[in-house]
Design goal:
mainly alpha; Methane Monooxygenase Hydroxylase, Chain G, domain 1; 2 domains; transmembrane helix; membrane
Length: 376
């Protein structure tokens, strides 16, 4: 049975309300066309469609709006150029299929901006729009390619500008709610919760697959939200490393159950020390999230070293017993899985201490900057 879905937050409801207002304004030209012969009404639908992509972060929306408008006009401009070149070259005998083929080299180039290509081209353009809108004046027009391309561009521009104006008005009036805790607090809290769950279900993770997947989805949602915001570089570098390791630990534990021999002969002698380490990691992350990283020094480095030494001793003892024949040696697959999982736990603990130290340095720098401003 999966975990219940939490109700939408006030911030989400406010986002929906602002989006409704923006779409309602963007749809006005469709119901009140500016000319007597509104042949272009189907094209104007692009405006409300673009307006549905609204979020309450004005700075981020400004960037996305500019990228949307720029990418749309870039695609339409190239499409009109291709239409003109082919029309002149063919002596007025325009063929949409051959014109679309002529556009292929351009669409190949623009596709390099797709996320999968990992190209710098995707940093300032929306490749999907650059590629798709170029086909409007080349192949997907009804009668007049140039006029329809201009109407499409104006509709998209209008649909992108309306939400920006609505957001600006709402922000000026103080009607945009806070999204909640700052991301520098949400991230370590979410990481602590995810780590607690994974290590708590260490030997029976597959029996609690739904709970782990639900927690992973929550953590992933926080990570997606963090990706849209500016986080101090020294914190960001450590956290994303930690996030990747948490997901690796989840995948490792859910791949297959740990073998009974591994649990009995290896994990049980380690469980007490790793349980303490788990608790200390949670304390460090949560105190750091509360803004007091200097009070969260729990000597994680010493505990990690102690756990590593204990693990070496236990493995040596198990290997000796296996050679003597007093126990059955575990399979190589089980050993690799266990080493991977325990290694992830120790690595996450080390990253937690790095995150705490980075938070201490960040806090000291902020206090120093505030002091310098007061001195001026």
């Amino acid at each position: 049975m999966s975990s219940p879905t939490p109700p939408p937050s006030w911030y989400s409801l406010a986002t929906a309300l602002v989006t409704v207002v923006a779409v309602a304004i963007a749809i006005i030209p469709i119901y009140c066309p500016p000319t007597a012969d509104p042949w272009y009404l189907p094209i104007l639908v692009a405006g409300p469609c673009v307006a549905t992509i609204t979020f309450l972060d004005l700075r981020l929306y400004t960037f996305m709006g500019l990228a949307t408008v720029t990418s749309t006009w870039m695609g339409l401009g190239v499409g009109m150029l291709i239409h003109f070149i082919f029309d002149v070259a063919s002596g007025g005998q325009y063929n949409r299929l051959w014109a679309a083929l002529l556009l292929c080299p351009y669409t190949f180039l623009s596709s390099l901006g797709m996320p999968a290509a990992k190209s710098k081209l995707g940093r300032f353009t929306l490749s999907a729009l650059v590629s798709a809108f170029s086909y409007v004046p080349v192949a997907f027009y009804a009668a007049d390619a140039y006029t329809e391309a201009w109407v499409t561009g104006l509709a998209v521009t209008f649909g992108a500008v309306v939400p920006w104006v609505v957001l600006l008005i709402f922000k000026t009036l103080g009607l945009i709610p806070s999204p909640g805790q700052p991301m520098t607090k949400r991230l370590p809290f979410a990481a602590a919760d995810f780590f607690d769950l994974l290590t708590g279900y260490f030997i029976c993770a597959r029996d609690h697959n739904n709970a782990i997947q639900a927690q992973a989805d929550d953590f992933n949602e926080v990570c997606h939200a963090a990706a849209k915001q500016k986080i101090p570089a020294r914190l960001s570098a450590v956290f994303w490393n930690m996030a990747g390791e948490l997901f690796s630990l989840k995948d490792c534990l859910l791949t297959q159950e740990l073998e009974p021999g591994i649990i009995a002969y290896v994990w049980k002698p380690l469980a007490a020390d790793f349980s303490v380490l788990r608790s200390e990691v949670g304390i460090v992350l949560r105190k750091t999230a509360r803004g007091v990283p200097e009070e969260a020094d729990r000597d994680l480095s010493g505990r990690i070293a102690s756990c590593e030494q204990l693990m070496v001793d236990v493995i040596s003892d198990v290997s000796r017993k296996a050679v003597e024949g007093s126990i059955s040696p575990p399979s190589s697959t089980a050993v690799v899985q266990f080493y991977s999982a325990v290694g992830s736990i120790l690595y996450i603990a080390g990253l937690t201490e790095k995150y705490r130290l980075a938070a201490v340095a960040e806090k000291e720098e902020e206090e120093r900057e505030r002091q310098e401003k007061r001195d001026k």
